[in-house]
Amino acid sequence: MTTVEGVAKWVTILATAGAFCWTVVSALQSHAIDARRPFLDLQLKLYQEATKTASVLATSDDTQELKAAEARFWQLYWGELGLVENGGIKSENGGVESAMVRFGGELQKGGKDRGLLKNLALALAHTCRNSLAQSWNVRDWQAPVYVAPQAKESPQK
Predict the structure, then answer these.
(1) Distance (Å, rounded) from C-alpha 88 to C-alpha 111?
(2) Tell me: the pLDDT tens digits for 4-51?
(3) Phi-psi region for residue 88, left (φ > 0), alpha (ψ -120 to 50) or beta?
(4) N- to C-terminal Cα separation, the chain
(5) Residue 46, domain member (yes or no)
(6) Domain assignment of residue 61, yes or no
(7) Domain of 130?
(8) Is position 72 within any domain?
(9) Tell me, what CATH number does 79's domain have?
(10) Of the N and C termini of the chain, which has fewer Cβ atoms inside 10 Å?
(11) Would you say 89 and 77 are in contact if contact means Cβ atoms under 8 Å apart?
(12) Number of folded domains in the chain?
């Protein structure tokens, strides 16, 4: 057997072993997502509901709609959302739990500052989005970070 034939056989063996390993890793990753899917789907559903409820509380003028939304917000806050929210008040950015606490704190004060409620609702939505990006391991889902443009100096005459 020549050296070229020996190298070709080893390349074939290594390529086959690599393909096998790739198949096993892909199958394990797919299984991991399948095992997590019920949690991820529930997280997505409840995050959507929390952000919708917060947006109604921040923008609606309909008394009945506001009353129903506030009741639903507290149900999510004290129950279902605790099943899926990430972070925690003491984590680096606080996560969804902290965003809900901030929004709820403003509601408890009467929620009179609609501008603040709008900002808190948007912050909750972005925090939910980042949590989903982390849960699903999809960086493209991360909320954008906006930077206010710097004022330019007017040219001297």
Answers:
(1) 23
(2) 787 778 888 888 888 887 887 777 777 777 888 899 999 999 999 999
(3) left
(4) 85
(5) yes
(6) yes
(7) 37-141
(8) yes
(9) 1.20.120
(10) C
(11) no
(12) 1
